[in-house]
Here is the input.
Amino acid sequence: MTRLILTLVACLLPLKALAIEIQEVTSPGGITAWLVEEESIPFVSMDILFEGGANEDAPARRGATNMMMGLLEEGAGERDNREFAEAVEAAAARLSFETNNDTVGVGFTFLTENREESVALLRDALVSPRFDAPAVERVRDQVLAGLASDARDPREIASRTLAALSFPGHPYGTPLEGTPETVAALSIEDLRHAHQRALTRDRAVIGVTGDITPEELGPLLDRLLGDLPTFDGEPVSDIDPATEGGVTVVDFPSPQSVVLFGHEGIDFDDPDYFAAYILNHILGGGGFGSRLTEELRVDRGLTYGIGTSLVPRDHAAQILGQFASSNDKTAEAVELVREEWTRMAEEGATEAEIDAAKTYITGAYPLRFDGNSRIAAILAGMQSNDLPIDYIDTRNDKVMAVTPEDIARVAETLLDPEALHFVVVGKPEDLETKAF
Amino acid sequence: MRQTFLAAALACVPVMATAAEEQTGAVTTFTLDNGLDAIVIEDHRAPVAVHMMWYDVGAADEPPGKSGIAHFLEHLMFKATDDMEAGEFSRVVEAQGGSDNAFTSQDYTGYFQRVAADRLGLMMEMEADRMRDLQFDDADMLTELDVVLEERAQRTDSDPGALFSEMRNASQYLNHPYRIPIIGWQHELEALTLQDALDFYRTYYAPNNATLIVAGDVDPQEVRALAETHYGPLDPTPGLEPRTRPAEPPQRAPRRLTFTDERVSNPYVMRTYLAPERDAGAQQEAAALTVLAQILGGSSATSLMGRTLEQDEGTALYTTAFYDGTSYDDTTFGLVVMPVPGRTLEEAEADMDRMIETLLTEGLDPAQLERIKTQVRASEIYARDSLQGLARRYGVAVTSGLNVADVDEWPDLLDNVTEADVREAARAVFDPNRSVTGYLTRPEPAAVAEAAPESEIEATE
Here is the structure.
């Protein structure tokens, strides 16, 4: 790797400065949003995250938050589900609702010309959803069908198996969609309760990008969210992943085995997070250059793709990876992952690898900001992670400040081949459930 | 080629747009002397550019018995050239903070990079290098065939829905190569050689068989100058004719199939009809079919199938209708009904037929048509937010036999569709003799074990 790269590194130029100017907007009612004005296209993207999420389902009501979110646009205010859908279509607004364990999310895109009616519709969905019985039963059937489908999907089986092994007794250990039993038992009252708990105005973070001024946005925030309650529940506790090193095989009829692997990770607010981020990039992140991709895909053709990522959640952190491989090649692939894990833990990364990773990670960062909807999501995500409003300007400096010594230290503490647990779903040859 | 890499160092001087800041959304085209077409889409909101090379060749252009070669070659394009070693292309892109990938369809093969706008010259230099100078003498290239076989195992063989689609598609086309899966039949894939890939490459990877698309914070004049520098010296393939594939004969009988797999959880019926595609200068019928798909199955709350079967009658878990007119040859119009547990696929199919009949006899709700058009107009505004989406729209169109004017005209054509157009298009397309009806289901014993309690009795029928 070669003259071409060497030539080019020598002439790397600073990127044109990102023209991302974030304004903090506080409404008359005290709701705060981060705004990037962009008037060249007559529409606005808004991303709202409510902290809390499906984690706060009671165990016997697991799935309530997810089903509630699925019902927000199935009838709200004066409109039943069809009238609501027709009104959204007539305004050409786009609403999306997402449930995660740590948050529930709302995506909202609207035309400048239809701003008032679009905001009124989302306000109804967030503040006064109806939970009409026919809609509840229809959505319940859809959720149950989804659960039936997940039960026969090797990726879902792998994910659920590893989660259950990692987080016994914690919400992270069970699917946020619930089980067929808990979903069947959910009442309309349960859904109303989940709504009151999950959508609270004091736990909302909001990113806005597009054709709107701070003066217009402030009052809009109050109309949209001002009538939501505040949170008075109990926060969820933290948990350390409980997996021990080994292999868990789940029999499944398929020519390939789906493999999910991981162990405890590193928190987003840990001072070593960026060192771990670089380390993961070299090991199994990013595109074609990672060690695992080179070993398993490029050199041996064992898989179409392998990747690893840091998964820092609010109450636990993991490093996870996945690939799929033909049943007769799976055992070899698992062994290679363990070897690479060991090599990285013991030797760390080379300076050339670290430099290349830093170049990529810092160079790729500005490219994330190309589009109103992308920027709105980034603004909400930054607030959800408690990052300062000037974070974008300092982020690449933090990446560049990581030293080879940092990488070596983090490699040794983060990566533990003896703790690595592999869940294998398929019919792998010469591979059985075992402890390392 | 070595001297052009020296030129790359010079090309590191920024070529940012200066005078054209007001031109966001502007589309410019030009053609080089060697036949390379180019489309430039300006968007100056962020210092980013998307660089794409679209070849007018896809899986439907493969020689008989060589299925999968177009896609296999796409993988090989990331291997060694005379000036770059295997994997270097992606490493260089990554060293610029960029991302790159490629895709193969029946009608096109495309390569793209997303980079800081001032790295455009470098991308062109490398893309030009691999257009003509890929090296096929590396034994390691055959390892990539194992990767493709794993890709097939992951995407097709591990997914009963994908296997079902493969069977259904092979029944839809009696003679046209769209019957053959893009990734290739396993037995033919296993037998592919590097010579097969080289033959295909030599013929089709040439400037006169490709379209360059650049979108982002760029100046069309600068793009042209860079394209002349990097792509201008490439030799065209002489005598390359427009593509002609084996055509469909008249289809004279409905086809039916049932695909059974124990991994299926929610059985469904899918029917496709052979349907006309968008043709240059003649897109009206395709526009009507695009609206028809929305009317029948666009939204679960307001489309005909959704509001009737999912909402009012509660007989379906999921319904949809689909039609993508952007295709070089005849495409398909499709319908799906996934019944609620306890309802059979025969009943679901009868529901589907009843919805088609309702549309043909009762027509459509003018208010629904108006809302669909409102959304079409809005999606034109929203689409401007995605550089890659816009670039892709032009790329797919020009490799499907359309031109830039057709793309620009398309939203207005959708906006002008009338109720009569939709009904006429529906009458023409819903011809049973040109249809394939497929059931995706699972073996009976599993159906009993997995069904919801209240549906056990009916599910065993």
